[in-house]
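RECORD TYPE: protein structure
NAME: Knr4/Smi1-like domain-containing protein
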Amino acid sequence: MTDEWWADVRRRVEAAGAAPGGSEVFGALGHKWVVEDPLTQGELAELEAQVGVRLPEEYRAFLLHVGAGGAGPAYGLFPVRRVQGRWRWEGDGADLADLSTLAEPFPDQGPDPELLDDVLAQRPEEEDFDDIEDFDDVIEAWDERWEAVMFAPERTAGAIVISHLGCAQREWLVISGSHRGTIWSDCRVDDVDLAPLLHDDGTPVRFARWYTDWLEKAERTALSIP
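PREDICTED:
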């Protein structure tokens, strides 16, 4: 993918936002079709020096030739900004990512399935309690145990949150490890484990396709309404 190809992506996003049906695209009321300015080579170098790792190539190209964030899938692509001299990603849930661990490999596997099954099997049911206050105490303790397993920080080392889908569902971009450059779904709020986004042929979705697949669908919606 050439620099010119990426520059055309920015033009297409701006055109879709200006089209009659731009406001009908899901999430447009959130990102308002704003695309932030691209990073300079110097800013990107400073960002990578701070986090201690080179970002995936497709994402690097996006930051340099399209923008630092803004209009994109769902409620938009989380922008990366320098705040008080430090770089960080901003958005609903962006702080779930530990920027100090981005150079560490993202885990190849999730938690032990047997451990998850064991915790789920012990989930209390309200009908088993005569007193609702007793149930509340027990379910609160269970929730704490479940979150300790599912939301352990080491499970998302080497990745950043890049988009919010609503209802606390998010998507991550893997920065380091064997899954580098791929997009992962995070529906843990609904007790569904982290999982890679996959194409119909079972191959993992990478950043460029993730973004341009959204753009193609957005263009169809934005341009189809007179």
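COMMENT: The helical segments are 3-18, 28-31, 41-51, 57-65, 113-121, 132-150, 207-224.
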